[in-house]
């Protein structure tokens, strides 16, 4: 029997893959399905490695390559991703197959055929940390480094690194700089969150998107929430919601 794990943060996609595997291969047993870097890292540290790993790339808490860079695994990995074929050539160069979403039985069968053919090689060869880091750099999106803000009847460019935090109130997004100047920007918080580097900016709640260097201290709040206090004065307290609390603390640890 082939013991397999699935690392996928979308339950629907994980269930689809599991159903396909059960249909086409009776010798595959799904021993675990996980949805985050944190969960997978902990599981691999406490359990024997599986025979094969089906892994998405973009998870809720980052790129899955971080799992394999930090944990010594000999298991072959079949990546499940929505990236185009040009990018995926990098995986093949490292002896790793892939599934291009949306998944179909034919695609899964082709990936498993590669697994069968390369099984012996996979057991001996694991991509190096440098190779995985190269893949991370290649797949990491290009984030916006400049914001265009409104200054009366003019538009002025401001470097993202100079932004301490962004604040949403009554349909208006304000930009607060480290030099304590305040401006307005004609973009939504959702758009800004997707455009700014998540290693630098974190959306703690509906109203605030904050730069990590603006954080002075963090206080515990009731119901497992936190209050983030910045070096700058803010219009109202920055309460980190319960659902964001764990990702927020993990994000903070990345800078230590």
From TrEMBL:
SMART domains: LytTR, REC. InterPro entries: CheY-like_superfamily, LytR-like, LytTR_DNA-bd_dom, Sig_transdc_resp-reg_receiver. The modification 4-aspartylphosphate is found at residue 56. The keyword Phosphoprotein applies. PROSITE patterns: HTH_LYTTR (PS50930), RESPONSE_REGULATORY (PS50110). Keywords: Phosphoprotein. Residues 3-116 form the Response regulatory domain. The keyword Phosphoprotein applies. Residues 147-256 form the HTH LytTR-type domain. PANTHER family: STAGE 0 SPORULATION PROTEIN A HOMOLOG, TRANSCRIPTIONAL REGULATOR-RELATED. This is Response regulator transcription factor. It comes from Chryseolinea lacunae. The lineage of its organism: Bacteria, Pseudomonadati, Bacteroidota, Cytophagia, Cytophagales.
